[in-house]
Design brief:
mainly alpha
Length: about 110
C-alpha cells in the first residue's frame, strides 16, 4: 500500500513510470526470461542455465532502481524510500527477491 501523502505517492508513481520507460528493455528481458523458466518447469524440463539467466536479468532490473530510490531517500527520508519500495513491489512483483537484495544493499550504502 502506497503512503497516504498524495504528493509523495504521485511523485513515486511518476518516477517509477518514467524509469520503466527509460529502462524498458531491462524489465522486458527479466519478464521474458522468467516466463521461459516457468514454461520449461511446467513442461518438466527445468533448466538451471535458464534460471540463472532469469535471475541475473531480474538483478539487473532491480539494480537499475537504486538511483531513483536513493533520490527519494535523500529528499523524503525513510518515508520516501519506503514509498518507493512499496511501489516497486506492487508494480513489479516478479522482481521479488532480486529487489529485496538491492534494497538491502542500497540501505547499507547510505
Amino acid at each position: 500500500m502506497l503512503p497516504a501523502d498524495p504528493d509523495l505517492r504521485s511523485r513515486v508513481v511518476t518516477t517509477l513510470g518514467e524509469h520503466a520507460k527509460a529502462h524498458a528493455a531491462l524489465f522486458e528481458r527479466a519478464s521474458r526470461l522468467r516466463e521461459k523458466v516457468e514454461r520449461l518447469e511446467r513442461a518438466g524440463t527445468p533448466s538451471e542455465s535458464a534460471r540463472n539467466r532469469a535471475t541475473r536479468a531480474e538483478s539487473e532490473a532491480a539494480d537499475s532502481l537504486f538511483e531513483p530510490r536513493a533520490a527519494f531517500a535523500a529528499s523524503d527520508g525513510d518515508e520516501g524510500a519506503r514509498a518507493f519500495d512499496l511501489a516497486v513491489r506492487e508494480s513489479y512483483p516478479a522482481l521479488g527477491a532480486s529487489y529485496v537484495r538491492t534494497e538491502y544493499r542500497s540501505s547499507r550504502r547510505s
